[in-house]
Design a protein that fits this description.
- The complex is a heterodimer.
- Chain A is built from 36 helices and 25 strands.
- By secondary structure, chain A is α+β, with helices and mostly antiparallel strands.
- Chain B has 16 helices and three strands.
- The two termini of chain B are about 40 Å apart.
- Classes of the chains: A alpha+beta, B mainly alpha.
- At the A-B interface, α1, α2, α7 and α8 of A face β1, α8, α12, α13 and α14 of B.
């Protein structure tokens, strides 16, 4: 041996030691700050403190939507099987291939099953793998109530090569079993008592069902992974190959069948892996979960025995994942006593967890479409969160961040802690909840604790950040007015036949056969002329959120009177049916004519009940069969003479009528805040709507000017509010608001100062001279109060000074006439206009003065409506 | 006529043998007591470790019973005797966490034969190279290679990759010291490199995962850290956060909060680094390394080749363990399960270390050292 060799060897080891010292220097000196930070961060325990989502209130402060803190009960099977005697018994028996009968049986018949377990000897355990033996000893110790630190080695040694049965080796086990069962039964009984009488099953039978669901998941996922392994693809790719019938599916199944020596048809294999929709899926899902599990388990066990390459470790991996992360909900909104019990004695209820959830409730169910709903985050939002989280971790791992990276890191971190939408949170889905998400949503707070403090001792509270609750939104809606309106509508509908019989002698034979007094289909809009706020946007029939959540399909299938249309706005969740405004449109034509030439006020046209167009075709009729004879504008408005307006429209032409209609917004939605416009767009066709555009989908329609110019008949019919124009009640209320004040108001759903803002700029509106306005209002006043006025028989209170116009909209579907819609539009009081209104009664075969006006009368007579006159 | 008193005999023995390792071992054992105290739950006194230190002492003294001549004569017998339990453990040994490494003895004690095999390898290689000096070609070291390969394979089957790996540098070092020419030795160095791809195919999935985790240790996602990279990550947290002077005895958060797994055993060094900082960790490294270097230095002083190889072998044994164990905890090599002799908790490792130290002492005391730097020029 040479000294040189010895020295060289020593140098090699010294070099290695030098490398180690260098590495120590790098870690402990050079990168000390980083590792100190990382070590600290790894000990940081941050508990998120949820925020309270902002409330939605009506204009009087009544709550329309709010967060109610509640606790839900969840079940995590992994913790249950590890910590609860029923779970331990079940799993121990399952490892030995013995059917336990379910978790409930494990508790009720625990003595017998426990004795069965304790009778096992190490010879019985020889068929298990080392890992399974380890698991079994864990469960046996749990069943026997033997603390792990003292008995782990002893039980393990017994399992590896001891003598005698478990009970012989550990006589105290029997006592532990009895003790454990007694306590578990008592605890479960107490829990069931608090869960309440509506709890349909015993708790453990419910947990057993959940367990079976999880097992089904495990087996299904495991089999798909085995198949994926066999084919060298991921289980995700396998699903894609098998998801639909075709060559790819057939080929894949054939390959698998050949590899696994599948005895029956390949498609039977497919039914177990990814069943196709239809009879195959129905047949499989028609089996009980337990039967499905048995089938899948047999298949998987067969693969584990005969095709270990494809199946080794798969089952266990899925068990670990699914039992740990698949948490099952058991009951929502627990009582205080239950929460108290589970919080105080959590160690007795292993596997059962409380989760505090801010549940969104809607104490008043008015206008669910407008107030909206919340939803859980979708897959795109979850992906976005995951990307942010990945970016956070990537930045965190950087040893030394540049100033830009540090700034980004803090921004991303703070966002994740406070603002980022987490997968377990809710967000607005529709209506105000959606459009005002930014205001309603708050920021999470957090409590950050350093585990072990700075010196490995007691935890140290580091940071407390108070959550920032969301801002409340106060709507212009008035719950009391909505209740009053609902009441009035129902009352009038139910009283209408009697009303008709006594009041309307001229049309005693009017048919009411399509009119259902118990199912009013009404849109009622009220517009505050001082601010544009909308205290009432009523649409009946409506729906409750429960119905929407659980009976959506039934609701969607309703043909006549679908509650998911918003009759006040013209949109809704199901289709849109915006009516013709009928005769309520006539004042616009009158205003247009007067603006051309004030002398039209005195212009007389002769009405014989109908006119025949020069071009031929169907006669254009008037409401009065015998005609109004010679009428000037005042009488024409008062009595709603169609012929007058046909002839007037023909005379003044399409240009001015179209200009007025367009100027008053008949070609587009009203711009209520829930429907946001792209301000850069000008024409209605190019409008891009955001927010919740369904609510005014297709609301308001105006024929092209060219079409009106080309067809006189079309122009004439448009002049009486048919064919060329469609409008929602809100739009009509706006028009009458313009008549009242000269301003075309922007409807506002959100109370001024209540968190909202106007949606768009005011467009250029037609200007009506005071003289012309006064003339038209005089005529409309006559509608309400003068004999012969179409609404005069209603009997409005003279103090109300109602300016109104009735209307009857003809409806034709597929060339077939449908029952007409009844309208009443207007404003009050005449001298100092406060509110504009529009009431639409669908398919009543009545005109506005026979039903809509009575609704208004009853509504304004209600105590709740007194506020409108203050 | 009475012989020299025990005191004088002892003094003579110490003067002849490599006595500097005694205070070094004493310091290391004392330090290990405090380290094990620090890692014990709630700072309970580590009575189990004291027993193991006692076992070390017992085996060290037991090794002194035989003379060096006897050890040399019985080297192959000892090897065979230790090989038998190595075979037996595969057949009937205790299985824990999927591996068979231990034999149950009386009174709940268990024995890990592979630890003793390290000492047997040192003995048998020392004997071989003493009997067959100056190998000149690779074929000359085939037989000793086989003597190493057989137990290494058996240990690999257990599986115990870490222990099996120790044999490679031990064999290479001994072959180098025996005088294998560089032109042949370099090919020997290539063998592990050439065998690596085959080894990759042969090792288990979890072992592959460890290697890949080590390779990508700076790019692990939180999920990977939580599962595959947990040990290494927390070891680095413990080491890195220790800074210059550490947190102090029993105060390291990773240790106190039970966040560093196996910190009483394979991952004991990060505890030292966390609690005593850079200064303490480097001091420990140098102290431990000086044990091995001292043995190597003493190996140069002896004429008897067997003694030289035994001393060098024992020194290499400790240096290899230091390099591998500390290197793993610092992320320099992939994670393998290898204790740090005299510091880690294992009883078999302690006993084998005692035996190795006793061997070093006894072979060192057989001849008066020749204080010549050319003692090995031949």
């Amino acid at each position: 041996m040479r000294g040189l060799r010895l020295r060289s060897l020593a140098y090699v080891f010294l070099l290695i030691v030098a490398v180690l010292i260098g590495r120590l220097f790098q870690l402990q000196i050079k990168d000390h700050d980083y590792w100190l930070r990382e070590a600290r961060n790894s000990r940081l325990d941050r508990e998120s403190i949820p925020f309270r989502r902002g409330r939605i209130l009506d204009r009087n402060g009544k709550i329309l939507a709010m967060d109610k803190p509640s606790y839900d009960l969840f079940f995590r099977y992994r913790d249950f099987r590890r910590g609860h005697i029923a779970g331990q018994l079940h799993e121990a028996l399952a490892l030995m291939g013995v059917a336990s009968g379910g978790l409930e049986v494990c508790l009720t018949d625990g003595e017998r099953l426990g004795s069965l377990c304790f009778a096992w000897t190490p010879e019985d355990l020889r068929s298990l793998t080392a890992r399974q033996r380890g698991d079994l000893t864990f469960y046996l110790r749990g069943i026997a109530d033997m603390p792990s630190s003292l008995w782990r080695i002893a039980v393990q040694e017994w399992a590896e090569g001891g003598q005698g049965s478990f009970a012989e080796q550990f006589p105290q086990a029997v006592g532990g079993l009895h003790r454990g069962l007694l306590e578990a039964r008592r605890e479960i009984e107490l829990l069931e008592e608090l869960l309440g009488p509506e709890w349909p099953r015993t708790l453990l039978s419910k947990l057993e069902l959940r367990r079976q669901d999880l097992e089904n998941m495990v087996l299904g996922d495991a089999l798909r992974e085995c198949a994926g392994r066999a084919l060298g693809i991921s289980s995700y790719s396998l699903r894609n190959r098998l998801k639909s019938a075709g060559e790819e599916r057939e080929q894949t199944l054939k390959t698998l069948s050949a590899r696994w020596a599948w005895q029956t048809e390949p498609h039977a294999l497919g039914a177990l892996l990814v069943p196709l929709d239809g009879p195959e899926k129905d047949a499989f899902q028609g089996m009980s979960t337990a039967a499905q599990n048995q089938l899948l388990d047999n298949f998987l066990s067969d693969l584990e025995s005969n095709h270990a390459d494809d199946a080794t470790g798969v089952r266990r991996a899925h068990v670990q994942r699914i039992h740990q992360y698949r948490v099952k909900s058991l009951k929502r909104d627990l009582s205080f006593e239950l929460v108290d019990l589970l919080a105080q004695q959590s160690e007795n209820y292993q596997g059962l967890y409380l989760q505090e959830i801010a549940r969104r409730i809607y104490p008043n169910e008015i206008s669910p479409m407008l107030v909206g709903n919340v939803r859980s985050v979708d897959s795109d939002e979850t992906s976005e969160f995951q990307e942010t989280l990945d970016r956070f971790h990537a930045l965190r791992r950087i040893f030394v961040r540049t100033p830009e990276e540090e700034a980004e890191f803090r921004k991303v971190r703070d966002g994740l802690w406070s603002d980022a939408l987490r997968p377990d949170e809710m967000r607005g889905a529709t209506g105000v909840e959606l459009v005002y998400e930014d205001q309603l949503r708050g920021s999470r707070g957090y409590l950050q604790v350093l585990e072990g403090g700075e010196d490995g001792g007691r935890p140290l509270e580091l940071l407390f950040s108070k959550p920032r609750d969301g801002s409340d939104i106060t709507l212009a809606l008035d719950v009391d007015l909505a209740v009053a309106a609902q009441r009035s509508i129902l009352k009038v509908y139910q009283e209408t036949p009697a009303t008709l019989a006594s009041t309307f002698l001229e049309t005693p034979a009017q048919s009411l056969r399509l009119f259902n007094p118990n199912l009013p289909r009404v849109g009622f809009a009220l517009l505050d002329l001082r601010s544009g706020e909308t205290p009432l946007l009523m649409s009946t029939p409506g729906f409750t959120r429960e119905e929407f959540r659980f009976n959506y399909q039934e609701l969607a299938a309703i043909k006549a009177g679908n509650p998911m249309r918003n009759r006040a706005l013209g949109g809704g969740y199901i289709g849109a049916e915006v009516p013709y405004p009928g005769s309520t449109f006539k004042p616009l034509v009158a205003a247009a004519a007067l603006s051309l030439n004030p002398d039209y006020w005195d212009k007389v046209f002769h009405c014989e009940g109908a006119i025949t167009p020069i071009s031929g075709g169907t006669a254009l009729k008037c409401d009065s069969k015998w005609g109004h004879k010679d009428v000037a504008m005042r009488e024409a408005l008062k009595r709603s003479c169609n012929v007058y307006f046909y002839l007037l429209a023909k005379e003044i032409g399409a240009d001015v009528i179209h200009a007025y209609a367009k100027g008053l917004g008949f070609d587009r939605p009203t711009g209520l805040e829930l429907v946001r416009f792209d301000a850069s767009q000008e024409s209605a066709e190019n409008l891009r709507l955001s927010g919740d555009p369904r609510l005014e989908r297709h609301a308001n329609y105006l024929s092209d000017k060219v079409d009106l110019q080309k067809s006189t008949v079309r122009l004439m019919r448009t002049a009486i509010g048919q064919v060329g124009v469609q409008a929602s009640p809100l739009q009509m209320a706006r028009m009458y608001g313009w008549l009242a004040t000269g301003e075309l108001l922007q409807p506002r759903l959100v109370h001024a100062g209540g968190g909202g803002s106007p949606a768009r700029e005011q467009q250029t509106v037609p200007v009506l001279s005071e003289t012309n306005r006064a003339r038209i209002l005089d005529a409309l006043f006559a509608v309400s109060y003068e004999e012969g006025g179409t609404a005069a028989r209603t009997g409005f209170d003279p103090d109300w000074q109602i300016i109104s116009k009735t209307g009857t909209a003809q409806i034709s579907v597929g060339g077939k006439l449908q029952p007409t819609h009844a309208w009443l539009t207007g404003f009050f009081p005449r001298d100092q206009p406060r509110y504009a209104f529009a009431i639409l009664c669908e398919n009543t075969s009545l005109h506005g003065g026979q039903i809509a006006s009575f609704i208004l009368k009853d509504f304004l007579s209600s105590p709740e409506a007194e506020v409108l006159f203050e | 006529m009475k012989g020299p008193s025990l005191f004088y005999r002892l003094r003579g023995f110490l003067r002849r043998t490599c006595w500097p390792i005694l205070p070094l071992v004493g310091i290391l054992l004392t330090f290990s007591f405090f380290v094990q105290w620090s890692v014990s739950p709630e700072l309970a006194l580590p009575s189990g470790h004291v027993l193991r230190i006692g076992a070390l002492g017992f085996f060290a003294i037991a090794a002194l019973v035989w003379s060096a001549k006897r050890w040399r004569a019985q080297a192959y017998v000892f090897y065979a005797v230790v090989l038998m339990p190595l075979v037996w453990v595969l057949v009937a040994g205790r299985a824990t966490n999927g591996s068979r490494r231990w034999i149950d003895l009386f009174g709940g004690f268990k024995l890990q034969p592979s630890e003793f095999m390290k000492v047997a390898i040192i003995l048998v290689l020392a004997r071989w190279f003493a009997d067959h000096p100056k190998p000149s070609k690779l074929s000359d070291i085939l037989k000793p290679g086989l003597l190493v390969a057989i137990p290494a394979m058996l240990i690999l089957v257990e599986p115990d990759l870490g222990t099996a790996l120790v044999f490679i540098p031990l064999f290479l070092s001994m072959a180098w010291l025996a005088g294998l020419p560089w032109r042949s030795f370099r090919w020997l160095l290539l063998v592990p490199v050439l065998l690596a791809p085959i080894a990759w195919l042969a090792i288990q999935d979890y072992q592959k995962e460890r290697i890949l985790t080590w390779w990508h240790q700076n790019e692990l996602s939180p999920e990977e850290i939580a599962i595959e990279g947990y040990h290494l990550h927390h070891a680095k947290l413990a080491v890195g956060s220790g800074g210059l002077t550490g947190f102090g005895f029993g105060q390291g958060p990773e240790n106190r909060l039970d966040r560093l797994p196996e910190r009483h055993n394979d991952f004991v060094f990060p505890v030292i680094a966390e609690e005593y900082g850079f200064l303490g960790a480097v001091g420990f490294l140098l102290l431990y390394a000086s044990l091995g270097i001292t043995l190597l230095a003493y190996a140069a002083r002896y004429r008897d080749p067997f003694a030289r190889y035994v001393l060098a072998g024992v020194g290499i044994h400790f240096l290899v363990h230091l390099s591998l164990n500390v290197g793993v905890t610092l992320g320099v090599w992939p994670t393998t399960g290898l204790p740090l002799p005299m510091i880690s908790f294992g009883g078999s490792s302690m006993m084998a270390s005692g035996l190795a130290l006793g061997l070093a002492l006894v072979v060192g005391a057989t001849r008066a050292p020749l204080f010549s730097s050319r003692a090995f020029e031949s």
